[in-house]
Amino acid sequence: MIHGELNLNAEAASSLEKLLPRLKAAFKDEIAADPQTWQVFTERLNTHFPALFRLYHRLYAVRYDFFYHLENLLVELANASFSRPADLRALDLEREANPLWFQSNAMVGGVCYVDLFAGNLDGIRAKIPYFKELGLTYLHMMPLFRMPEGENDGGYAVSSFREVHPPLGSMAQLAELSRALRGEGISLVLDLIINHTSDEHIWAERAKKGEPRYEAMYGIYPDRTIPDLYERNLREIFPDEHPGAFTWFEQLKKWVWTTFHSYQWDLDYANPDVFNHMAAEMLFLANQGIEIFRLDAVAFIWKELGTSCENLPEAHIILQGYNALTRIAAPSMLFKSEAIVHPDEVARYISPEECQLSYNPLVMALLWNTMATRNVDLLHQALRGRFAIHPATAWVNYVRCHDDIGWTFDDADAARLGINGSDHRKFLNEFYRGRFPGSFARGLPFQENPKTGDCRISGTCASLAGLEKALQEEGPAEVELAIRRIALLYNVVMTLGGIPLIYLGDEIGTMNDYSYLDNPAHKDDSRWVHRPAADPQKYARRHDPQSLEGRVYANMRSIITFRKAHPELAGGELETIESGCGSVLMYSRSHAGSRRLVILANFSEQTQAVSPWTVQQNNLLAKTRLFGAAQALENGAVQLPPYDFSVFG
Ligand code: GLC
Ligand code: GLC
């Protein structure tokens, strides 16, 4: 018999028809107790199953046991739906009715390590008044799951997704905390580390014992044959730690795929068992009240011989599959992608069906580029050509995070401006290591690779912006400039469009902390220089306008207050404007037909002026200056003091 092309919609419908009665039988007690949940569940399933089926089929149809895994997945979904707490079900309905809630100008994010910021989960709870004072509506706590003692990559080596690392608290406390935060208008964000587990995770432990089902969850090879084939095309991510992407495990007498550290074992998503296991962990966590998952290292989750094993089409399918699961069992959930890769690739993770949110690593890196060069061209070009994304999604714009800064701009973009990408990266690394003459920065190299010349940069916002050097070697004038640089960077991310994210500590000008060198678990990873413990004495000075902390904090508070008062800053509609002045970035914002705010940012320590022509074109003199210190001159130009950020509207 000759068959036509498989009609996947018809197959999806007929699969669901076969599976639903089995599900109904398996959950008959739950259904009797809670018919309403079953009804909502089946409605959502009917809507989203065709997409889920298509994606799952695309990944796993080649497996003889495809249907078995599909059925298990539906069981997980039904389980999750029945065990979802009532307040989260209410939240689901609320967010289904208002799916673009995250685009509000009231949104402001913050990120911190639980232990370093507040000791433990109770400590974080005690900080809620502070988060509110600052204006946060989004709190990302760095990984807090059970992790190995000693080296654990700041928690990115997860030993159990269902347990909080004991010194930090318990899963019950986490769920309570999420509720307490939500009660105060703050959404909890946590990492879902899907690419790997720690080598102490129960799955890895069972693999180490040679259990075939668990060995099959990881990339484990008896000898170098296959690893060597893969490595022909792989990038080295943490070359300081181990060369290539594989680690020899003496206990197993085998090679294990370890993209990051050797104690972080990559999962093998070609195995549907892995997809389903991680789905169950995700749904469990969603029911603890996490509202946004930061999906860690998404670029690496699918491997294919002969490719770089980064950003492959199947990686997107996996994320879309997980997205479909949340639409069915936890529809208020959002995904944020962490893809610190080429800007073309970053954009591919963003869509309502995949990740509604994404870090904006390009803008982050180019903000620092602009600070170093005092020239806005690359940033302006990126905002013009690469900022617009689907209207139902949003960028998460940031200045610093817990990771290094990589110079991820596109070489062809740079070439169009007459800039040689690789030379320019060398310059930026020299500049931020403080080795370029006149540099204000105090950064450290991260993962410098002598084979390729690659290097990235560690350091806190304040130290990279010149505060450390100004305090130690210069004087009050340079301190003032550094404080203005910090403010300018944050003012831009607060107004570009999308969700601004503060790396907590930056709001009081926290500088590098070199004590990581004394900690054997940290000394080989310079990112710890920008992960200091919060200093209560410094935080206590934040309301003192004479103190450094107070000066930085006042700036942060004023831009947050401004953002929250201006609905023009909601959403992501941004228009770039040629300022005609190399150091002045100019853009306008409006939302849903609101008036237009025109923004000017001077990235230089010199006073700058935009020409009368630019002023007229943008009708600046007819507008009110709502923020900043720009002044109209007699000749019709507008002049900006050093590092000034002004808004007209
Ligand atoms: C992400 C994290 C980074 C971690 C890596 C491995 O990139 O941001 O800190 O080292 O994933 O999990
Ligand atoms: C981590 C590393 C970063 C690397 C990225 C890849 O974030 O810190 O340097 O580029 O992973 O996703």
* SS strand fraction: 15-25%
So how many helices? Answer: 25
Bound molecules: alpha-D-glucopyranose
Rounded to the nearest angstrom, the radius of gyration is 25 Å
Main sheet specs: 8 strands, parallel, barrel
Cα shape:
globular
Give, in spatial order, the strands making up the sheet with the most strands.
Answer: 1-2-5-11-12-13-14-17
Percent of residues in helices comes to 40-55%
Question: Describe it for me?
Answer:
The protein contains 25 helices and 25 strands. The protein is globular, with a radius of gyration of 25 Å. One alpha-D-glucopyranose (GLC) binds at residues 237, 297, 299, 340, 403-404, 406, 456.
Helix and strand arrangement:
Elements: H1 8-26, H2 28-33, H3 35-60, H4 66-82, H5 86-97, E1 109-112, H6 114-118, H7 121-126, H8 128-134, E2 138-141, E3 145-146, E4 160-164, H9 171-183, E5 187-192, E6 196-198, H10 202-208, H11 212-215, E7 220-221, H12 225-231, E8 246-249, E9 254-257, E10 264-266, H13 272-286, E11 292-295, H14 313-329, E12 334-337, H15 343-348, E13 357-359, H16 361-373, H17 377-386, E14 394-398, H18 411-416, H19 421-432, E15 444-449, E16 454-458, H20 461-464, H21 467-473, H22 476-495, E17 499-503, H23 536-540, H24 548-565, E18 574-577, E19 584-589, E20 597-602, E21 608-610, H25 612-617, E22 625-627, E23 631-632, E24 638-640, E25 645-648
Parallel strand pairs: 1-2, 1-17, 2-5, 5-11, 11-12, 12-13, 13-14, 14-17
Antiparallel strand pairs: 3-4, 6-10, 7-9, 8-9, 15-16, 18-19, 19-20, 20-25, 21-24, 22-25, 23-24
Helix pairs in contact: 1-3, 3-4, 3-14, 4-13, 13-14, 16-17, 21-22, 22-24
